[in-house]
Amino acid sequence: MSEKVELLSPAGNLEKLKIAINYGADAVYAGVSHFSLRIRAGKEFTFETFKEGIDYAHARGKKVYATINGFPFNNQIDLLTKHIEKMAEVKPDGFIVAAPGVVKLCREIAPDIDVHLSTQANVLNYLDAKVFWDLGVKRIVVAREISLKDVKQIKEHLPDMEIEIFVHGSMCFAYSGRCLVSAVQSGRVPNRGSCANDCRFEYTLYAESTNQNTLFRLEEEPGVGTYIFNSKDMNLASHIQEILDSGAVDSLKIEGRTKSPYYAAVTANAYREAIDDYYAGEFKAEKYQRELHTTKNRGFTDAYLVHRPFEKTTTQNHEYALSTGSYEVSGLVTEDENHFMCKYKIYPGNDVEIFAPRGAVIEECENEIGKIYKNENGIYYVNFNKILTETNKELDSVHSGNTNKIQLPGKLPYLTMLRVENTEEV
């Protein structure tokens, strides 16, 4: 095992790649095209922007793993071969692959690039892990349904095999994504990257009596239906200490390539703090949970890593598909560091919290535009006297959808987020 565990974050596009790195990730994972098991996220990257992301990461000592974890049909093999060849040219630090045949193909085409086995391969034991190790796989992303005890046993049998586990993000109703509900209902195949998240929908249940030729509608709440398939989101931040104490885990992975830039920032920052605090002997679970609860979520569960499945009765959320989160992002600071783009709404006179990349230096200031200041708890805020666009047009307020850059009272680091507490209900 490496000296310090790796923190691996999702990168749905180039901006989110930069955010994850600046907020604490050691590595990111991303993909190009439909071979990447997240078609929506895969479309965000071209080969050119993917290479730009790799160069950006490498310049900062970070890594990028390329996802090629779809399950191809025969008529896609030639296209897949060309795709692997092209991906190899941009020199990612590893390929994330799910199918044994694709593992073999990657090793033949690009033997100098490490192969990581996707969680879609559902590895739960050392026998399966050994098969992939013999195929040349360097790291296994174990199934999200695995226990920490089983992770430790895999490490005992294969001490040189790197093991990566999911610690945060969406959970599937099915077994690590092996689901056909979306394919049956909407023709979007989950295991080829186009899941429509049908498990998140509300459903109305009926009971039928063929003897009486009657049909009864069943309701948990009148007019609501039920989110019967909806799993809560994984959140293992409170268990980082016991995970790292095991000595069996090399990388902690956050799910969410299609989630927001704010999610990418908060999760990278919170788990970075948890990891660093663990090694410093200052682990405080409530601190990380406070931040993670500011993101949109379906309710949190610690899933199955530290509990056996039949011991868990709180892994599903039957009440709603996605909460609002306790904070809204009002703005994102642009590359020139003098402006921000509005993402929610900002009014003059309101205190807006500054959530900055790790290691950022913020200077307090006050002028006609407003002020940047630090409160008694050490938290930085910005308060605007006036809302001015880049061209000095004054606005009463600014809301999401406004494409004008808005002036800041002083410089803030690129990718800094401005956020306000959310008072809306779920």
Commentary on this structure:
The protein has 426 residues and is of the alpha/beta class. It folds into 2 domains: 6-171 and 232-311, Alpha-Beta Barrel (TIM Barrel), CATH 3.20.20.70; 327-421, Elongation Factor Tu (Ef-tu), domain 3, CATH 2.40.30.10. The radius of gyration is 23 Å and the shape is globular. Helix 1 packs parallel to helix 10 (261-280) and helix 6 crosses helix 7. The model has no long low-confidence stretch (mean pLDDT 90). The protein contains 11 helices and 24 strands. Helix 6 links the parallel strand 5 (114-117) and strand 6 (139-141). The strands form 5 sheets. An 8-stranded parallel β-barrel has the order 1-2-3-4-5-6-7-11, surrounded by 5 helices. An 8-stranded antiparallel sheet has the order 17-18-19-16-24-13-14-23, with no helix packed on it.
Structural class: alpha/beta
Output mean pLDDT.
90
Q: Indicate the low-confidence ranges by residue numbers.
A: none
The percent range for strand residues is 15-25%
Organism: Arcobacter roscoffensis
Family: Belongs to the peptidase U32 family.
Pfam families: Peptidase_U32 (PF01136)
Protein name: U32 family peptidase
Produce the secondary structure layout.
Layout: E1 6-10, H1 14-22, E2 27-30, H2 39-42, H3 47-59, E3 63-68, H4 77-89, E4 94-97, H5 100-109, E5 114-117, H6 126-134, E6 139-141, H7 148-157, E7 162-169, H8 181-186, E8 205-209, E9 214-218, E10 233-235, H9 240-245, E11 251-254, H10 261-280, H11 285-292, E12 300-301, E13 327-333, E14 339-342, E15 345-346, E16 351-355, E17 365-366, E18 370-374, E19 380-384, E20 387-388, E21 394-395, E22 398-399, E23 406-407, E24 417-421
Parallel strand pairs: 1-2, 1-11, 2-3, 3-4, 4-5, 5-6, 6-7, 7-11, 10-12
Antiparallel strand pairs: 7-10, 8-9, 13-14, 13-24, 14-23, 15-22, 16-19, 16-24, 17-18, 18-19, 20-21
